[in-house]
Design goal:
With 392 residues, the protein is of the alpha+beta class. The chain is built from 16 helices and 12 strands. 41% of the residues lie in helices and 14% in strands. Keywords: mRNA processing, mRNA splicing, Spliceosome.
């Protein structure tokens, strides 16, 4: 970085001190990751704002890497944050560092400084785009109560009483029968179960360790208001603005729905959480399935387009390849968004932003968005011929 920027960050930037981290541990901040050396003590010159600290233990004997963990933290100007590594658990310690210990480190800053790596300033602009709508309050709200974001969910072990013993069924008289693990029915007239239902019933009911689950906004079970007529239900399935309204109402302000989209994406991209990826995908599907909301929440959609354009640029290659080759739901929903934007005649600036996004996807990734006025083959109505004899 240039000297002026370096001097500014040296004065105003935050410092993260991480004591006791073993050599070769994977450690990173935002989108950058390294393997630590013996004299590593942390990061300095951190730009004020939200950042994602992440780490993963590495086995010295096998070089196996544990699932990634981390946390988001809003660094104030000149903030001095200290954490300690727990050698027994191979994880960050939950114990708070005393004020006296922190002051001792500050007093010894000249000796400590040479063990601190500078923040990788070359990623700063990209990081700001990816996290622009995540406020400190929103990050705390969505993170697990423990504050630690983990790649894998922490599950409680299943007791013997909770282990599946077979699938309970109902015979035609309404009495319970039992389907054994081998799939043999005690009741000759047991209710037929689908393969998926049988598989689900055989799985133990695992639960997350309290305080470790992500706290994403829950999608409503119904996509239409209570008491809706069949015609209204169909309308709300085609235009999911009602669902988006309910999601937005659970936030302090509308733009936080874009912040949640960014948070979920970063937990996937950096935190390696597939749970977060599924939530990100569900939010993208929802945002691309709204007609009236695109007019009401214009500023939300402006930020949504800016955000998803940057996210797709940073998407891992294997996920992009899946989108291109299999024309998966993200590609199909983006087609739907582009079709809605033109059909509903959104205002000129937003439409220009959407068209630029569509053009960039076509040029950079060779995604085909021609024929937006026509349905995809798997989206066309299916005509079923019913034999008159079947109606009698």
């Amino acid at each position: 970085m240039d000297q002026a920027t370096a001097k500014k960050l040296l004065i105003e930037g935050g410092t993260f001190v991480f004591l006791g981290v073993p050599e070769e541990t994977q450690f990173g901040i935002d989108m950058q990751c390294w393997n630590t050396e013996e004299d590593f003590r942390g990061i300095k010159m951190i730009p004020p704002g939200l950042h994602y600290i992440h780490y993963a233990a590495v086995s010295k004997s096998t070089a196996d890497i544990s699932p990634r963990s981390g946390f988001m933290h809003f660094f104030e100007q000149k903030e001095f944050l200290v954490k300690i590594w727990n050698k027994d658990k191979e994880d960050i310690s939950k114990d708070e560092v005393s004020d006296e210990s922190i002051q001792t480190l500050k007093d010894n800053l000249l000796n400590l400084d040479r063990h601190l790596a500078p923040y990788p300033y070359e990623i700063w602009q990209k990081w700001r785009l990816l996290s622009s709508q995540i406020t400190i309050g929103l990050a705390k709200k969505l993170s697990p109560e423990s504050g630690i974001i983990r790649a894998n969910m922490e599950l409680l072990p299943t007791s013997d009483g909770d282990r599946p013993r077979g699938v309970k069924t109902l015979d035609e008289t309404g009495e319970e029968g039992t389907t054994s693990n081998a799939g043999q029915s005690v009741s000759k007239r047991a209710k037929r179960l689908s393969a998926q239902e049988r598989e689900d019933a055989m799985l133990p009911d695992l639960k997350c360790v309290p305080g470790t689950a992500m706290r994403f906004t829950k999608f409503p079970k119904e996509k239409y208001p209570p008491g809706s007529s069949p015609e209204e239900i169909t309308k709300h399935y085609l235009d999911q603005s009602y669902t988006l309204e309910l999601m937005i109402s659970q936030h302090d302000e509308p733009l936080h729905i874009v912040g949640e989209l960014q948070f979920a994406y970063l937990c996937f991209l950096i935190g390696h959480s597939l749970e977060a990826f599924e939530h990100w995908k569900d939010l993208v599907i929802l945002m691309c399935s709204c007609d009236s909301a695109i007019h009401k929440y214009r500023s939300v959609y402006v930020q949504f387009i800016h955000t998803i354009e940057t996210q797709i640029e940073e998407m891992p290659e294997e996920f992009l390849a899946d989108i291109v080759m299999n024309k998966n739901v993200v590609y199909k929903k983006l087609r739907e968004l582009f079709r809605i934007a033109h059909a509903s005649k959104v205002d000129g600036r937003l439409l220009a932003l959407i068209d630029r996004f569509k053009t960039n996807l076509t040029e950079k990734l060779q995604w085909d968005f021609t024929g937006l006025d026509k349905d995809e083959d798997d989206e066309r109505p299916v005509i079923v011929n019913i034999d008159e004899a079947e109606l009698e």
